[in-house]
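Q: what sequence does this backbone want?
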């Protein structure tokens, strides 16, 4: 886990104001401190400035040959080869380093160890930017080719690591988080009509490549930017390819099982103790079982952590979305794994307070209490461990969500997890919603997303619709959850790994037909079959239950009180958008958990929490409307 940032200008000489720009690099580092509290460094040359703050979850590696302008610290990575100079900053990890090292031995001298950044930079030196196609990992990286005066920004295939960018005059800026960009003089948090639509009409999701604020962007997953004296280009180096699936069902189960186990084994490697998040569901339980088995081979015991709300048994209400509590299944898995287990219990006050910390973690409004409780959990685990493996992303690639199975959701011709626009407008002034054309923005965004689906020639009907739905899940729902995991883990000072998001699994599952993914109508049956022999049957075929949320009426009262404070404060920046009468009626109405407006869990109480986040965000970040 790291925070990276930098600036670039192919004609400006930053060394003419060396102290000024070194101070800017230090401001970058301070703003990204939560992503990397253990080590930091800066690099400044005529055309480039680089900053990195690093969480030490593996060896820092030997310091490479330094070139002029480097400060103390092991990052950035600096190399010289054949008379040319290169520099790199990187957030992330390369999981296939062993396979890559032999072909890089003429650049990486000696026996190592070599940091992931050193491997990536050596690969660039050997093959140029196309080397990124060989890397299996999660990364946001910037490579400076000094003699060519060129900058390359790389982002991993599925967007697990963030990388934002903007321009300030003629200076090109990039950073892991938006807050770092805002430390540059003249860069402001401006919100235009599209930005308002991003947060009100499709939020907490974001259109790929957009950063909500005007003139800010994010490198899209599977892409890299090439910036040089000749201009700026975006190159897509990875995309899903649709082809007929030719493996038998038995071979599909076997290959799926291998890919999952291989991804977990690769991501289990670390020089510090590793733990897992354990919910008692099939996804996290399978990851935990593989980890426990591998650690036992080394006579080590797995540490597991689970999350629950205070008095959850008292307040829990079963629904079609959330049929059961996790605790009984967690207990069964702990006994099965013989893990060193810790239950972390979150109070409603903890969750409410973390609503605002989660905005600062994202620099944007996010998934309300679905996000804040995860941040609280990551912070607690981060006090005990530095790396956690999680079960995120299995639902997206194996088809676990209700919109894959419920006809009324599957048949929708819009984002099925965000179809209820009426719920989004319930607190807003009618004139504001009409001026934004919220329905039109969501419709245009959906149509544009569908146009990008790599369809299989000749595919039609339900098969075509499911391919579209899987693509939208990967690009939208999964990205939202990956953002949540990355920012909350970073704020909690823990590196969260997501083995189900290994691109090889995603590529393979993309073409597996629905009849294999959900054989005999069993939700995620392919995943369950791939886990046979690794989990107890009771866990393997447990009915899906999503990430928990509280049903404590005391929490709803806190949200309502927070909303009333907004209404009573004439300086509240969100007031111009809210309809006071509609809001006051809403605050006295019973909570409606059965009508989610985003995903499965964001219903009426989460609308209040989201508005609280929006108001805090606009005030804290001095958001201006343009």
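A:
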């Amino acid at each position: 886990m790291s925070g990276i940032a930098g600036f670039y200008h192919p004609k400006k000489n930053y060394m003419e104001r060396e102290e000024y720009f070194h101070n800017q690099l230090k401001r970058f580092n301070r703003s990204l401190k939560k992503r990397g509290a253990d080590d930091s460094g800066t690099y400044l040359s005529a055309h480039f400035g680089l900053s990195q703050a690093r969480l030490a979850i593996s060896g820092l590696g030997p310091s490479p040959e330094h070139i002029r302008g480097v400060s103390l610290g092991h990052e950035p990575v600096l190399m010289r080869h054949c008379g040319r100079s290169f520099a790199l900053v990187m957030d992330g990890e390369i999981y296939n380093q062993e396979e890559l090292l032999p072909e890089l031995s003429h650049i990486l001298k000696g026996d190592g160890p070599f940091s992931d950044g050193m491997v990536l930079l050596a690969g660039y030196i050997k093959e140029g930017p196309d080397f990124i196609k060989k890397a299996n990992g999660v990364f946001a990286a910037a490579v400076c080719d000094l003699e060519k005066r060129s900058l390359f920004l790389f982002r991993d295939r599925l967007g697990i690591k963030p990388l934002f960018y903007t321009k300030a005059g003629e200076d090109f800026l990039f950073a892991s988080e938006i807050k770092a960009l805002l430390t540059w003089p003249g860069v402001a948090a401006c919100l235009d009509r599209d930005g308002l639509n991003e947060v009100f009409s499709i939020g907490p999701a974001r259109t790929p490549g957009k950063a909500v604020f005007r003139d800010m962007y994010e490198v899209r997953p599977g892409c890299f930017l090439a910036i040089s004296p000749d201009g700026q280009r975006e190159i897509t180096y990875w995309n899903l390819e649709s082809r007929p699936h030719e493996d038998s069902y038995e071979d599909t189960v076997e290959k799926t099982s291998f890919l999952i186990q291989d991804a977990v084994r690769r991501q289990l490697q670390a020089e510090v103790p590793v733990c897992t998040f354990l919910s008692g569901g099939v996804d996290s339980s399978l990851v935990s079982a593989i980890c426990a088995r591998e650690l036992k081979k080394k006579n080590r015991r797995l540490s597991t952590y689970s999350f629950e709300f205070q008095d959850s048994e008292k307040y829990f209400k079963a629904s079609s979305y959330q049929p059961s509590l996790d605790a009984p299944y967690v207990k069964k898995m702990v006994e099965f794994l013989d893990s060193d287990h810790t239950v972390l219990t979150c109070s409603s006050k903890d969750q409410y307070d973390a609503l605002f910390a989660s905005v600062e973690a994202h620099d944007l409004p996010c998934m309300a209490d679905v996000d804040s409780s995860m941040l609280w959990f990551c912070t607690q685990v981060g006090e005990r461990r530095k790396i956690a493996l999680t079960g995120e992303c299995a639902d997206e690639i194996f088809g676990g969500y209700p919109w894959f199975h419920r006809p009324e959701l599957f048949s929708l011709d819009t984002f099925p997890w965000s179809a209820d626009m009426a719920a989004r407008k319930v607190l807003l002034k009618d004139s504001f919603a009409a001026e934004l054309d919220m329905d039109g923005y969501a419709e245009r965004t959906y149509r544009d997303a569908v146009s990008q689906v790599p369809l299989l020639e000749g595919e039609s009907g339900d098969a075509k619709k499911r391919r579209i739905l899987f693509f939208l899940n990967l690009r939208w729902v999964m990205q939202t959850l990956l953002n949540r995991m990355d920012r909350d883990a970073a704020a909690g000072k823990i590196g969260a790994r997501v083995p189900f998001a290994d691109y090889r699994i995603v590529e393979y599952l993309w073409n597996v037909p629905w009849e294999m993914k959900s054989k005999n109508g069993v939700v995620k049956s392919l995943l369950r079959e791939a886990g046979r022999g690794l989990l107890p049957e009771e866990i393997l075929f447990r009915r899906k239950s999503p990430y928990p949320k509280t049903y404590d009426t005391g929490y709803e009262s806190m949200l309502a009180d927070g909303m009333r404070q907004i209404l009573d404060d004439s300086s509240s920046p969100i007031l111009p958008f809210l309809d006071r009468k509609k809001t006051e009626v809403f605050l006295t109405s019973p909570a409606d958990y059965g009508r989610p407006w985003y995903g499965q869990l964001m219903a009426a109480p989460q609308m209040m929490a989201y508005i609280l986040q929006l108001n805090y965000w606009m005030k804290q970040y001095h958001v201006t409307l343009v």
